[in-house]
Amino acid sequence: MQKEFLIETRAVADEKGNLLNLKYYLIEEEQPLSVTPLYRICIKKSVAEKPGVEETESTPPVSHSEAFARQMLRRLITNAVTPVCLLEIVDDMMTGESGQAS
Known about the structure:
With 102 residues, this protein is α+β, with helices and mostly antiparallel strands. Helix content is 27%, strand content 37%. The chain contains two helices and four strands; from the N terminus they run ββββαα.
């Protein structure tokens, strides 16, 4: 079972001046054989001129720690990350956290 928590909504302009609505979610997944949930991140983007059309991307589990996942999500929100680059940026963040070079 999973629970989806809306953490923040942002409105930003893209390079063409289109208004983007970004919604950032923390997703908690309960694991069948574990008492510790896993946390994923999801971003949903819609363009003001096209209501009802939404682009969505979510990560695989990033951590067992809610605090770590929230910290990562806060960095994504601060930088207005969109769904199209979410996976690449989270991969870079995870690689940086483990001290490995890519």
